[in-house]
Amino acid sequence: MLGTIYAIQRKICSGPFVSRYSTDEGVGGLAGSQGAFRICSFWLVNALALAGRVEEAERNLQQLMTLQNDVGLFSEEYDPMSRRLLGNFPQAFSPIGLLHSIFTISEAKAAS
């Protein structure tokens, strides 16, 4: 799991923001740009917490939580370069991911 976290952070992350796949030329997946997929970003938070990297997980979660609209809803994707909400809006993956990340961090803190 630690190797997977490292690979994800190295290849498809921009800070706490995780893309679904690399859009680099010559790499599998679709060409072109995309925003960070929120559920993937929350999954990384969970993986970090479960790996004992709770402080890093909390930092990522705090950054992700700031990216709501004026009524607290999340879009499916976020573009960290242009700081824009992208994709389906609103939709269920992002709030479900948020709640699961909060729960996972809470459980990781309780276990330590």
Report how far apart the termini are. Answer: 19 Å
Question: What is the share of helical residues?
Answer: 40-55%
Quaternary state of the chains: single chain
Largest sheet: 3 strands, antiparallel
Mean pLDDT: 89
Q: What report would you give on this structure?
A:
- The protein is mostly helical and 112 residues long.
- It has one domain.
- It is 48% helix and 11% strand.
- It is built from four helices and five strands.
- The protein has a three-stranded antiparallel beta sheet with strand order 3-4-5.
- A hairpin with a 2-residue loop joins strand 1 and strand 2.
- Helix 2 runs antiparallel to helix 3 and helix 3 packs antiparallel against helix 4.
- It is globular, with a radius of gyration of 14 Å.
- 27% of the residues are buried.
- The mean pLDDT is 89.
Q: Key features?
A:
48% helix, 112 residues, 11% strand, mainly alpha, globular, two-stranded antiparallel sheet
